[in-house]
Design a protein that fits this description.
Layout: H1 3-17, E1 21-25, E2 30-33, H2 39-59, H3 64-94, H4 100-106, E3 110-111, H5 113-136, H6 142-171, H7 179-198, H8 202-207, H9 211-216, H10 220-236, E4 239-255, E5 258-271, E6 274-286, E7 294-297, H11 303-309
Helix pairs in contact: 1-2, 1-5, 2-3, 3-5
């Protein structure tokens, strides 16, 4: 397989990304495909590149100017896919809407495979064209043919190594943070979240709740209304929250900056002077290596139910 065939391969993969889902809305069971958004432009780029690659294959001539233009656009598309994924990850955490329909419908939205595929294809296409321009300056004698083969082999090896390292980082949980180091950190956040709820500071309390839960409940305003009604019902029953404390840490899974922890929190109520304890299973999530935390109540929920509003759940986590 020559660099021309690899070029065509990346073009075909890039075109296919246009017809892959770029965004998922699990609550509405809706997928947004690439051709419905910017994918139509990336598809056009890969189609033009494919025509050029076929021309190169048959004519065995690599036009430097066209190649440089395709390289620049390809690198820009690869960079844009990284930025797009980063923006989506931020929105999953910070997205807010007081429209109940929008909030509940978009709960648990997440990126689709198409964004990854077009970024990888664009980067691969650009690197292959760069390699082609390098090889273009060698003579086609026996020694040069060996150099070409070695360069091609080197490119494949580098790609395999990078892919394997990336796959290892994504699939294998890290153990660089232990239960003993995370427990006091999470405990402090649980206590602060409980104090906010106990004192009626619902805005601060919701800051500790994962956005997927808030969206599922119809948005921030709706969530505050529900909390006020719940507290009113407790007071009518002569019940109040005394404290919310971390009881135990069960399972920890770490993927680069993302940390997911299964915990049990203990909620202490006072009912006419009588203490009542309630244990709740929670999912603690941090997307910045433990600097900030958000919590999801997963009490009596199955993994399938949790995935509906939190599709980023670590598959290795034991509920």
């Amino acid at each position: 397989m020559t660099f021309r065939h690899i070029l065509i391969l990346f073009c075909v993969v890039g075109i296919s990304s246009t017809f892959m889902p770029w965004l998922h809305y699990p609550k509405m069971n809706v997928a947004i495909y690439g051709y419905l958004v910017d994918g139509i432009l990336t598809g056009l780029y890969f189609l033009i590149s494919l025509i050029f690659a076929i021309y190169v294959l048959y004519k065995k001539k690599l036009n430097t100017i066209i190649s440089l233009a395709l390289i620049l656009v390809g690198l820009f598309l690869a960079y844009s896919s990284v930025i797009r994924l980063d923006d989506l990850n931020n929105e999953k955490i910070n997205f807010r809407s007081d429209n109940p329909l929008i909030s509940s419908g978009t709960a648990g939205f997440h990126e689709g495979i198409g964004i990854y595929v077009y970024g990888i294809a664009a980067a691969g296409l650009s690197l292959t064209l760069i390699l082609g321009l390098i090889l273009k300056h060698f003579q086609t004698d026996t020694a040069t043919m060996k150099i070409k083969k070695n360069l091609m082999l080197g490119l494949v090896c580098v790609a395999v190594v990078i892919g394997a390292v990336a796959l290892f980082k994504v699939m294998i949980p890290s153990d660089k943070l232990s239960k003993s180091s995370l427990t006091p950190i999470i405990s402090g956040h649980v206590r602060s979240m409980g104090d906010a709820l106990k004192n009626g500071n619902y805005s601060l309390f919701l800051d500790y709740n994962h956005q997927g839960i808030i969206q599922s409940n119809g948005g921030r305003a709706k969530a505050i209304e529900m909390l006020q009604e719940t507290n009113k019902a407790l007071l009518e029953n002569n019940t109040k929250i005394v404290s919310v404390l971390l009881k135990d840490v069960h399972d920890i899974k770490i993927n680069e900056e993302n940390i997911q922890v299964i915990i049990t929190q203990e909620v202490l109520f006072d009912n006419n002077g009588k203490s009542i304890n309630e244990l709740q299973k929670m999912l603690a999530v941090s997307d910045d290596s433990g600097k900030s935390w958000h919590f999801i109540n997963i009490n009596n929920k199955t993994k399938t139910e949790v995935l509906e509003f939190f599709p980023s759940l670590n598959e290795h986590l034991s509920l």
